[in-house]
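Help! Submission page says 'invalid entity' but I think these are all valid:
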Amino acid sequence: MRILIVEDEPKTGAYLKKGLEESGFSVDLAKDGAEGLMLAQEERYDVIVLDVMLPVLDGWGVLKRLRETHTTPVLFLTARDDVQDRVHGLELGADDYLVKPFAFVELLARIRTLARRGPPRETEHLTVGDLEIDVVRRRVKRGATRIDLTPREFSLLQLLARRQGEVLSRTQIASYVWDMNFDSDTNVVEVAIRRLRAKIDDAFPVKLIHTVRGVGYVLEPKDDA
Amino acid sequence: MTRPRSLAATLALAFAATTLAAFALVGAYVYAGLERQVNAQDDLDIVLAARHTRRLAGELESLDAVRAHAERLTSQVLGNEALSMVVVDAQGDVLARHNVRLAALDDAPAAASVPLADAQLFAPHAAPVPANDRITADRLVTWTTGGGTPMRGVLIEAALGDRTPIRIAIARNMRDRADLLEGYRDRLKLAGALGALFALLLGYGLIRKALAPLREIVDDTGRITVDKLDTRLDASRAPPELRALVDAQNAMLGRLQQAFAHLSQFSADLAHDLRTPLNNMRGATEVALARPRSVDEYQTLLESNLEEYDRLARMIENVLFLARAEHPSFVTRQRAFDVREELERIAEYFEGLADEAGSSLRVDGHGQLTADVELFRRAVGNLLANALRYTPAGGVITLRVDETPDAVRVVVANPGEPIDPALLPRIFDRFVRGDPARSGGVPGGTAGLGLAIVRSVMELHGGTAQVESDARGTRFVLTFNRPPAA
């Protein structure tokens, strides 16, 4: 998948490019609005990540001109999260926005969603290694062992399983599982993960829930080396 | 809109207008009195002359006698330049005349030599006073000659000694009187104008002097700068009318001073709180770079830095939230919801955490509320996070909602050490912490903004946040006022 990043701040551009490339995307980086617009019009991209404050032509301008001919999904980045700014971007045809500073995994998740164009497919059965989740009956089995989960634990596991292989930040987890969209400065998510681990992983040699230090959690069938 | 006129000018103009009106009234009264008096005197002259002349005519035997002794009749008007007289017989032939030409001179100066039509002297409409009627002032008539000379006079009938009827006309040229009154009128107008001007200047001066304290207040106010917010205006020198203004300004200064001190303190605290994570990162990074480290050490450092970044980001987010919440244009998305359901959801979110801390959560009561749910969760979440921090192991934290006709109250109560009473009034202020020494070390501590956000949220909903703390524990009470039923 190809991604265009339009960002004038060299450090931001560099780490975005590096991070996205390491996540398996092919990335082009434009350093100002005009260059970004040219590339966006001439090449084919799956997602465009657009900074608002840009030299030559600002993000709004790029978005406006681009929307005259293209429907490429655009995620814009802004340091100002005034409601008006957001509304303005969405009115111009942006598909999503992120306010700086943001967690990189959050950006990754948004880009994947935009590239997929639509919500992830709802499947009735989820499998991660030897873990099986029956979404309809809300039953969880690891190998032959049946595991009892509370409803919230089940929601948490289901979220991790649907996004298996993807790192989820604590904020994302709090938002998806509990619908809590503020940072409570507590380690609620850590505790919840710890409890889930006790049921899912503790009794088994192969661990499925992994901590990505400082970033978040990921569910995948690989052992912590 | 036009610019408002200066107070001194407005008042001075009002003074002048009042003075002018007073002068006009008094002048008109005095003038009318004079005019009446002058007219009465003139009328009396005419009436008396007419009576005497009629009496004298009765003493003359015949028309011939009249012709021979005309001066007897005209003697009655002799001494007065303004009076004229004409005596005619029944056929209209003139028997005697006096001063007629003089009276008519201004009518036709060139006609001095031309015999005048004597009838011109008389008002054409004047009916003669019959010979037996008493001559009174109300028989006098006023008219203006063709040349514009104002005249007043009387036409009477009289009988000679032989009963021969004659007519006598006596008229007074009123030009001198008109001139006199006109001059008097002019002087009155001039006096009025001068008086008004005098009132204008005097009033302006006096008002400016009276407003001097106001200018002093303005000057004093102008000297107050940010570093002199403790200055107060001197109310004792201000007149009573301005004292309320001075008091109000002083009160405003007090509020400004307080808010400003608050804001400076806030900036200082914010800077201070930003320093700690920055310093942690800087120090740890420098130490790490001083010599080669294992990958694991680098990873630990980066992870630790990431934690500090999160702390900074959270702080900025919270500060921005507070700043925005103070702005009148902040938008809340209010809807009706079941408070108990929300409290249970929040309790569930914190349940694991409480469990780990050895405390438990209980939700009580019922209530319906219209509010911004996101903000409600944030406020209650902050209170609960705070309660968890201070509840001893084994304690039960209670979330309770009470509904009354005019308010919905949400109480977050936790057992534990009472909060220092000196701290209670400031507990909702920014960067105020229950235990300054400890909270800095709590991972992801609220940076002292959690409770400030609670208060902000309540203010956005027109409600209040209160706290009580005693030996039984600490209770935070959020009161959402219900709008009066329509």
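Support: the input was valid. A stray whitespace character was the problem, and the output above is from the cleaned input. Chain A touches chain B at residues 81, 83, 101, 152, 174, 178-188, 191-192, 195, 213-215 (CB under 8 Å).
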